[in-house]
Amino acid sequence: MSGPELDKNPGEQGTPLLELSGLRVFYGAIEALKGIDLTVGRGEAVALLGANGAGKSTTLKTVSGMLAPRHGEVRLHGERIDGIASHELVRFGLGHVPEGRRVFARMTVLENLNMGAYRFRRPDPDDLDRVFGLFPRLAERRKQIAGTLSGGEQQMLAIGRALMGKPELLLLDEPSMGLAPLIVEQIFDILREVNEQGTTLLLVEQNASEALQLANRGYVLETGEVVMSGPADTLLADPRIRAAYLGEHVEVD
Amino acid sequence: MSFHDFWDVLVLGAVLGSLYAVIAIGYTLVYGVLQLLNFAHSEVFMVGGFGGVIALTIFVPATDPSGLQSIAYVAVGMLFGAVLGGTVAFFLEKVAYRPLRRRGAPRLVFLITAIGASFFLYNLVGKLFGRNPMPMPSMYENKTVVTIFGSTISVTQALILGSAVVMLVAVDYVVNRTKLGSGIRAVAQDPEVASLMGVNIDKVVSRTFVLGGLMGGVAGFLFGTTNQVFYTMGFLPGITAFAAAVLGGIGNVRGAMLGGLTLGVVEAFTVEVWGDAWRYVGAFAVLVLVLMFRPTGILGERVARTA
After folding, report:
1. I need a labelling partner for A168 at 20 to 30 A (CA). Which of A20, A142, B21, B79 fits?
2. Nearest-CA distance from A9 to chain B in Å?
3. Mean pLDDT taken over chain A
4. Which of B175, B187, B189, B196 to mutate to test the interface with A (most CBs of A within 10 A)?
5. How far is the CA of B280 from the CAs of B20, B223, B234, B270, B275, in angstroms?
6. Contact flag B306-A100 (C-beta cutoff 8 Å)
């Protein structure tokens, strides 16, 4: 991957992995996303912050085809993917760890992981080794019924399951929800490792401090609009963010 | 009741119950993926019976067949039962239920559609093939194959029991060990997440109907081997098999098997002890009793679907 090779494809470097432009999504008459513009570059980790109902999950669901935008575009590798059914999007290298983990409760850990590789003829043993390397706890419990796992273990399983599909872009919806601080830290350490191994992350989080420590950049959503964006450390230092999402008492205005 | 009679009745019940089990699988699989009580499944069973009889009426010569010929005829009957059952189930899903799913219709609409489809199908068959029973052509001499504890098992009984067991083992394998099976189970547990994993829900639902239809169709043919087929023959076995699926825990494949066998055996003993007029009373009393104490059925479990 030297200079000349890049020169042959001058536009390539400029194309973000994921690009949302003018995205407007409705639930019936209610406009949940009022024109979102957002990009995620290859190899980046990007955080989406905001209060409940700001449109964070809606944004992720629109990217993974669970919701259809009324206006605007979703592009992956520069190709339009809005309107494509979610079961087909997996082939485009998209992984989605849904809110609330939603592991298949009556399947074993191993069966859940194999479900993540459903798009392949059979699961890749190297991917399984990788997931078990990241989450040794899952390897120990591979025969256990997923519904009997703890919340933290279920979150690990949900992430591992998504990784089994070899995603280039991994969407994560509130991976810290309802988990003890120690477990949250473990999970974010692993996400950092996943990101360093080359998987791009787009992360929705209420836990702004953990999210911004992991992410390169962040966007702040409020009632369906991007109200702020920038490098993670800038956001982390911003007094409004500190007041709104990190529970600090700061004089604003 | 002597020991001898006991075995006779048990064999009778097991034969009947294995048929109920095979039909019940069709109800329970569809319920699993769609939470739909597919009352038209009894008509899939009926059509399978007609498929077998009509194919055999065309193929079987007047002379009594034996040996390899008999095996070939049974195979033809099963094949046509399966193909017709599978085809009707396939189109039932495509024509009657898929448009409702597309529009997000409420559950009650599905139920009424199922009942309507059932009426439509059996009246159509009655119109096309007449409302009088059609006799099953003789495919073999129905002699005794084995005697266990002094009870005889006939060719027909062995045929039904044997093919039912093969089908039950096969469907258990498909559901638990194959890719289609993991798709079926994933859709049953969380369709939205299943599609995030790359499962094409429409395809899985369609194949689930076909799987249940193939088995229901063969069961219809097997049921026909005991005497004849007629356009309303699906109703009682269908309702009983549906009860069997509920008894075992609807949505649970092994539960449907257990429920079917239980109701078959209970029915046989009820008839033996109290007479034919009580035939369905015993089985449904058992259903009511079990559900009073285990509302989710014998093997059923209520696992809350997370939001």
Report:
1. A142
2. 31
3. 91
4. B196
5. 13, 17, 15, 8, 11
6. yes
* pLDDT reported for residue A117: 97
Q: pLDDT digit string (tens) for A151-196? A: 999 999 999 999 999 999 999 999 999 999 999 999 999 999 999 9
CA-to-CA distance for B82 and B77, rounded, in angstroms? 8
CB contact under 8 A, B196 and A90: yes
Give yes or no for A80 touching B (CB within 8 A): no
The one-letter amino acid at A110? L
Q: Rounded mean pLDDT of A99-122?
A: 96
Q: What distance in Å separates the CA atoms of residue B177 and residue A74, rounded to the nearest whole number?
A: 37
CB B306 to CB A101 under 8 A? yes
Cross-chain Cβ contact A119/B179 below 8 Å: no
* B166, B168, B174, B180: CA torsion to nearest 10: 130
Taking CA atoms, what residue in B is nearest to A162?
B197
What tokens appear for A24 in the block?
């407007």
Which chain B residue is nearest to residue A87, measuring alpha carbons? Answer: B198
Task: Look up the CATH architecture of domain B3-293.
Answer: Orthogonal Bundle (1.10)
Q: Round to whole Å and give the CA distance between B193 and A61.
A: 11
B201–A contact, CB cutoff 8 A? yes
The C-alpha atoms of residue B297 and residue A118 are separated, in whole angstroms, by: 31
Mean pLDDT throughout A11-37? 88
Q: Spell out, as residue ranges, where chain B has pLDDT lower than 70.
A: 1, 61-62, 301-307
Contacts with B179 from chain A: Cβ below 8 Å: 118
Band of the pLDDT at A248, cuts 50, 70, 90? low
Distance from CA of B194 to the nearest CA of A (A): 8
- Which residue in B43, B74, B68, B11 sits closest to B241, CA to CA? B43
Q: Between A88, A98, A147, which is nearest B193 by CB?
A: A98
CB atoms within 10 A of CB A235: 24
Phi–psi pair at A172, nearest 5 degrees: -125, 125
Domains of chain B: which residue ranges?
3-293
Using CA atoms, how far apart are residues B263 and B290, in angstroms rounded to an integer?
12
Q: In terms of CA atoms, which chain A residue is nearest residue B302?
A: A106
Query: A146: which strand partners?
Result: none
Q: What percent of chain A has pLDDT over 90?
A: 84
Give the model confidence (pLDDT) of B98-150 as tens digits: 999 999 999 999 999 999 999 999 999 999 999 999 998 888 888 888 887 77
What's the pLDDT score for residue B207?
Answer: 98
The half-sphere exposure of A104 on its side-chain side, counting CA atoms within 13 A, is 30
Beta-carbon contacts of A27 under 8 Å, excluding residues fewer than 6 positions away, are: none
Total-model pTM: 0.91
Residues of A numbered 83-102 whose beta carbons fall under 8 angstroms of chain B's beta carbons: which are they? 85-88, 90-91, 96, 98, 100-102
